[in-house]
Write a structure and sequence with these properties.
This protein has 16 helices and eleven strands.
């Protein structure tokens, strides 16, 4: 009998990136009969998940088998200040960590398999499948569960083409969140290897602590390069027009309404000239006009590319200090405290 039900977690409350291909075992009491049955038949259980394309996370094995925790690139992605790999404890995660992170409701506080139903929904929807004591083998229980996974989607979602069509003709501000999300899909594919194992990220966050979310200093040098001096002098590379948009918002910590962008056309042109050294803007004027037109999607595309440049280097909790963001109908701004920004004086 199919026993799966669901619960939701606000994305902002979840300290790791879940993925629909990762299924974890949770139990309120370790060393339970079901945990022991999985441990005794781990290879067969793990193979059953692998054959269906899922990664099975069994905490008693997690720390010893999780090569991600030894991956320098992954650790640096989540902690750009890291200079040395943290020491890995024997048990990087506990069942209590899972319970607290997922804010498990009482109904899910039982031995169960837990899976994220949809990665990019808000709130995030998780399903859990209660594992009842049985005389059947644990492998047959797993196979029954896997025969049903993915067959009962809780919600219908628009595909990307429908999302674009729905927003066609709307002002840029009304489309901002979805445009940034859709344009950003290409960067998520490029960093999938770093973000594809959700609980690995939770374990790393536990190891590095919350201090790693703090913003670092930004240096704009004489060549207009963006250098993050606290993050190993990492350079964030942007195309000249994207960089001009970034500098415009950096120069206006109070924020800018998209509907008022036309008032900044001349300033944006001046910034572009300073970056490129070009006095003649005839070849770029059309792009600047589109950027400052509140009915045009160009500003959203530039903001998405700026966000991607930072998110491709380190996780969003750190990157969010540097990209342009804001609520619908409100001013958009860069959150980075300006006392952390240094502009080198040009000769």
């Amino acid at each position: 009998m199919w026993q799966a039900t669901h619960f939701t977690v606000a994305r902002k409350d979840l300290p790791f990136e879940p993925v629909i291909t990762e299924i974890l075992f949770y139990t309120p009491e370790s060393d339970s009969a079901i945990e022991n049955a999985i441990a005794a038949n781990y290879e067969a259980v793990n193979d059953a998940f692998k054959k269906r394309g899922y990664r099975f996370v069994f905490l008693p094995r997690f720390s010893n088998e999780n090569e991600d925790l030894q991956n320098t690139d992954l650790v640096n992605y989540y902690n750009p200040r890291a200079t040395n790999l943290p020491s890995i404890p024997k048990r990087a995660l506990t069942y209590q960590d899972i319970k607290e992170s997922l804010k498990l409701p009482d109904k899910a506080n039982v031995p169960c398999f837990i899976r994220c139903q949809m990665e990019y929904d808000t709130p995030l929807v998780f399903s859990f499948y209660k594992i009842e004591p049985t005389e059947r083998s644990i492998v047959s229980v797993v196979e029954e569960y896997l025969s049903q996974v993915g067959n009962r989607r809780l919600f219908a979602f628009l595909n990307d083409k429908e999302v674009w069509t729905e927003r066609e003709g709307l002002p840029a501000d009304n489309r901002f969140d979805h445009d940034v999300y859709l344009i950003g899909k290409e960067i998520r594919e490029r960093i999938e290897q770093l973000r594809s194992k959700g609980l690995s990220t939770l374990a790393i966050r536990k190891l590095i602590g919350d201090e790693s979310d703090k913003p670092g200093k930004l240096l704009i040098n004489k060549q207009n390069k963006l250098i993050l001096t606290d993050f190993g002098n990492k350079e964030i590379k942007l195309e000249p027009l994207h960089k001009a948009v970034f500098f415009l918002f950096l120069r206006h910590p109070e924020g800018i309404y998209f509907k008022d962008l036309c008032d900044y056309r001349e300033e944006l042109g001046t910034i572009y000239r300073e970056i490129t050294g070009r006095e003649d803007l005839s070849g770029i004027q059309d792009s600047i006009d589109k950027l400052t037109n509140p009915l045009n999607n160009s500003i959203n595309e530039k903001c998405a590319r700026i966000k991607n440049a930072f998110v491709s280097e380190f996780r969003e909790e750190v990157a969010q200090w540097y990209f342009i963001d804001g609520e619908r109908g409100e001013k958009k701004s860069i959150k980075l405290p300006r006392e952390l920004v240094t502009w080198e004086i040009k000769d």
